């Protein structure tokens, strides 16, 4: 993994069925930081993330890495659904990328990552035998196995119960440190616990708020006062935007 | 299992009743006892011919499945081949296999080959169509994931789309196992010197109806056994898939 680049999106325009999702949107994600992106459903958060991942083509606009090198091949993607292959065990799912690229899977490293997400014992388990939280941990380990400087996460914890979600947030903040991360979430508290810069995308065509910059190491404690105050401000802003 | 047994006994009872009351002439519907006797007396003859038909069915199932699965993979891999092969596939099914049977016997002879070819003709399409359907319906999220992982297209096909389509292939193979006997027996009717279809045709011509029924029963038991075995095998092999 090379040093994490920042990401600059300039003049992003995307149209669905004749209606502009966003028009001339500019976004700058700081290198090595976790940026959280909040916004109402259907506002275009996922489209923006998919455009950075190279999964969606923008009608206009460009996505650049701050170091000038192409972004392709330096991005790992984690979706809301775990997207685990039901026929492969946890280990096989973690090393999926290697197999699809024709590389020899590094079982040792994969087992290390599974241990890091607390699933060392479950490396031979099929996804159907795992709980929702465990499955998302495997997905996190699979994302980490890719070892990419940029990580894009699309509501990765939203389907989990509160306790499991809090644990996974802490785990993610820990294991993703040093990478450029874009985290889409609909949960202001998640944004405030994990975000070093928090953006709100709203309106149609959507516009991006000025970032709310939060200081202090992540993950922030559940009773962190600055984070709680930030959550309050965000909630107000989201209500005004709605 | 209990239900199947009760159903079989019920049907047997109804048959016994109809023949005992002599509602139908004996040469049209012999009693279960006569059929059992005919089966017992011709045991070796029936077994020998069942072996022939069984080999035709099994070989047809193997070749048809292999060819059908291969065709689906080739079509899924290449848009050009799809445009060339699909019309051929459709035509092969649009022409009734009954119409092709005499041709197959003319080309491939009275032996095993023409029956296997007809079974393959019957099997090929359900296998290809089901498998191709599965190959085309890969979970889009998996394909996105593969794209962000920098996967090569043919590795996505073999490592992702193919395993994901195995339950669909299994559906095709189940249908194939159910219809494979049609091809084999059809071939035997058109021209053969052995096999259960040949036995039935011969017995029918000599008004040995009891023997014909015995052959039909053997064929039925063989077909059901094949289907159940294939179904169980596929379920066991695809335990990860919710539908089996």
Structure commentary:
Chain A is of the alpha/beta class. Chain A has 2 domains: 7-74 and 149-241, Rossmann fold, CATH 3.40.50; 84-147. Chain A contains 8 helices and 10 strands. In chain A, strands 3, 5, 6, 7, 8, 9 and 10 form a 7-stranded mixed sheet that branches. In chain A, a hairpin with a 4-residue loop joins strand 8 and strand 9. The radius of gyration of chain A is 18 Å and the shape is globular. The mean pLDDT of chain A is 91. Chain B is mainly α and 244 residues long. Chain B has a single domain (51-237), classed as MetI-like fold (Orthogonal Bundle). Helix content of chain B is 83%, strand content 0%. Chain B has 10 helices and no strands. In chain B, helix 3 (43-77) runs antiparallel to helix 8 and helix 5 (97-108) crosses helix 8. Chain B starts with a helix and ends in a 7-residue tail after the last helix. In chain B, 37% of the residues are buried. The model of chain B has no long low-confidence stretch (mean pLDDT 92). The interface between A and B is medium-sized, with 24 and 22 residues.
Secondary-structure blueprint:
The complex is a heterodimer of chains A (242) and B (244).
Chain A (H helix, E strand, L loop, with lengths): L6 E10 L2 E11 L4 E5 L6 H9 L6 E6 L9 E4 L11 H5 L1 H6 L5 H10 L15 H14 L4 E5 L7 H14 L4 E5 L3 H7 L2 E6 L4 E2 L3 E2 L11 H17 L1
Parallel strand pairs in A: 3-7, 3-8, 5-6, 6-7
Antiparallel strand pairs in A: 1-2, 1-4, 8-9, 8-10
Chain B lengths: L1 H19 L11 H10 L1 H35 L1 H16 L2 H12 L3 H25 L3 H9 L4 H38 L5 H10 L3 H29 L7
Helix pairs in contact in B: 2-10, 3-4, 3-6, 3-8, 3-9, 3-10, 5-6, 5-8, 6-8, 8-9, 8-10, 9-10
